[in-house]
Amino acid sequence: xxxxxxxxxxxxxxxxxxxNLLIIFxxxxxxxxxxxxxxxxxxGKILKVNLKNKSFNERYINKNDVMTFLGGPGxxxxxxxxxxxxxxxxxxxxxxxxxxxxxxxxxxxPCSGFxxxxxxxxxxxxxxxxxxxxxxxxxxxxxxxGIIIENKADSPVYLKIEDDHYELKDASDLWGxxxxxxxxxxxxxxxxxYKVTCIGTSGEINVPLASIINDHFRAVGRGGMGAVMGSKNxxxxxxxxxxxxxxxxxxxxxxxxxxxxLSFKKSAxxxxxxxxxxxxxxxxxRLADVPHKNWTLHKWKGVNEISGSVxxxxxxxxxxxxxLCPFSCGREIEIKEGPYKIxxxxxxxxxxxxxxxxxxxxxxxxxxxxxxxxxxxxxxDTISAGCTIAFAMDCYEKSILTQDDIGFPxxxxxxxxxxxxxxxxxxxxxxxxxxxxxxxxxSEIIGxxxxxxxxxxxxxxxxxxxxxxxxxLGLQYATSNRGACHLRGFANDLYSGFTGFNEALxxxxxxxxxxxxxxxxxxxxxxxxxxxxxxxxxxxxxxRQSISSGSQIVENxxxxxxxxxxxxxEIKLALSELMEIGERIFNLxxxxxxxxxxxxxxxxxxxxxxxxxxxxxxxxxVLTIDLMLEEYYxxxxxxxxxxxxxxxxxxxxxENY
Length: 657
Ligand code: SF4
Description:
This protein has a six-stranded mixed sheet, with helices on both faces. The protein has a six-stranded mixed sheet with strand order 8-7-12-9-10-11. Strands 13-14-15 form a three-stranded antiparallel sheet, with helices on one face. The longest helix is centred in the C-terminal third of the chain and has 21 residues, at 575-595. It has 29 helices and 17 strands. The chain starts with a helix and ends in a 6-residue tail after the last helix. The protein is α+β, with helices and mostly antiparallel strands and 657 residues long. The chain binds iron/sulfur cluster. Iron/sulfur cluster is lined by residues 111, 133, 273, 321-322, 325, 327-330, 543, 545. The site of iron/sulfur cluster has 12 residues, from loops.
């Protein structure tokens, strides 16, 4: 601003006739500088809702916010740190629920319907977050970039948002309903144009595995965000807007979006996802990527009975893509008769199929679909639920849990016993009271050596990609900020040839299995950079497929994303600046976790992931990450205990938190 004024005075002195033009130029510069500092519609706004006194406060986002954190979980961790949420109990009023959309959410960029929910996790007691696609996030972003929900309502409420009108409404009629009924009832009362996200009955009773479900089929699954929402007596958020996203240059933005969309749509990967969703379990089996029988078997013939092609044959599949998605992995199914009869149900994704199927040795595709539906309607994370049941089956086999403890036999492969147990967990009844806490806490209660059957890191059950076949994935799981996670980093895609950004980020390319199954410190850098990219992915609010598969299809995808950011908000970032934002978000989450007590001792591989398999492609491999972890800390600028150094925090401009 000072520069603009000085320039104006100098030029005016040289040529007085230019004065009008210069006045306009100067005024525009001044207004822009003020807007960038104060925030404005261009960057959007965040709503703060106080459930106790029913008040609403809005704050505009400014240029600095975007340059520092982009959006999504970036804004969330900034807020959680500033509020010192690491000091409070996850189910206390002091733990806010931070719902954020990403910078590109709701734009014409393909797969940009994502939103995030962050809070201190009741499952892991560290930083928790989940992201979800569908349509809710896209609708919300038209009005708000995010909502911070504080305190607790005296009785059940839901938040209604219609453009700039916000209202907390009585939800006593909705309390006690499943997620599908809640969404259905709200939309018939408010109108079909409303998009809804909500908790089920498990969230209401604060089950630590509770999820949040939007648009019937999409879940903020991991880390118990649904329990935090339930602890606030908040049943749902319903949003409708007639507004449009404000672009700096809409035409240029749309041109890029359109060409990416078409490339995605006609790609071979697009065909696979459209036909089989993510459930390519038979293909993953060939890569030694699928865990079976709580990580203790190398192979299982039941995989062929629960694969994507069997689902397609038997379960009346219909396509159900998220907002503006050309890949369309989301699907709806129906089971018309029999004990597992369901309709309008989400089709199980790979993770769910493996968690209930391969992990528990359940080869009944209908039963798996039914368990998926139970989880979605009661509102519980499918990965943690399936893996905790597998842990309980392991305990039962070793007589650490008995029929008396459980109330019925719990043999491997017994679908009906698994369904009974899942119901108990969702309702916190019987043995479910213990197991609904997730496997780590359950093992602490059960004792008797049950910790040997655990496959969790920082309290989060490991997802369904086997790091014994990709050691760098083990490093990613061990260091992931929300606990073991395949979605916070791209280690499983990097070395299998599923990504195309390797050259742009100067990281390794596809490697044969024997080169991936070594504790090689060279992998540390790849893993760290891919975790930073993952933070960008989420802060942009776009589906992970659009970065992993997408970068394989569109060669210069990251450059195009930088162009899109410019055409949206007139900020030109270099790739290195974008990656630094990702690094900043990752490190700030780590600082949050350090304050919750996380150090090197927690960046570890649990017993079941070290279990050597007797046969198969990774026979006798014992997963170790010691060398990679040492190098990882060095590359990240952390000390030997896994704490970011002052220099690193200073370099990332987060030294003052
Ligand atoms: S690829 Fe699947 S999860 Fe991603 S946006 Fe498309 S339908 Fe949604």
